[in-house]
Write a structure and sequence with these properties.
Layout (H helix, E strand, L loop, with lengths): L3 E4 L2 E4 L4 E7 L5 E7 L6 E7 L5 E3 L7 E6 L4 E6 L8 E8 L16 E2 L3 E6 L1
Parallel strand pairs: 2-11
Antiparallel strand pairs: 1-3, 3-8, 4-5, 4-9, 5-6, 7-8, 9-10, 9-11
Length: 124
């Protein structure tokens, strides 16, 4: 079992930046960030393969968000720039040890391990 702990959420004005961190209790094959706004489904934001550093993003955040990792610390980061009010949500870190899954890389079902989430609020 891998434990994930997120940090770095908060409130910011539109156009601002935040950096989220996700510390894992062990190394994993893949780590990702998801978000969920009230009344909406959980949405995949970005993912990274921890060995190769290969990344992919949701279209809604491309060019504004950057996912990265520090393997020595088993930690993933999400740098969020040019934040918009529609980015307001609870952000969750997810991880998995499987190299293959029939689910898409940004599908919640692809991931076995989840953090408790951190709130991000962007005001206009």
């Amino acid at each position: 079992q891998v434990q994930l702990v997120e940090s770095g959420g908060g409130s910011v004005q539109a156009g601002g930046s935040l950096r989220l961190s996700c510390a894992a209790s062990a190394s994993t094959y893949i780590m990702a960030w998801f978000r969920q706004a009230p009344g909406k489904e959980r949405e995949g934001v970005a993912r990274i393969l921890t060995n190769s550093g290969f990344t992919s993003y949701a279209d809604s955040v491309k060019g504004r968000f950057t996912i990265s990792r520090d393997n020595a610390k088993n930690t993933a980061y999400l740098q969020m720039n040019s934040l918009k009010p529609e980015d307001t949500a609870k952000y969750y870190c997810a991880a998995d040890n499987r190299a293959y899954s029939p689910r898409g890389a940004l599908h919640p079902g692809r991931y076995d391990y989840w953090g408790q989430g951190t709130q991000v609020t962007v005001s206009s």
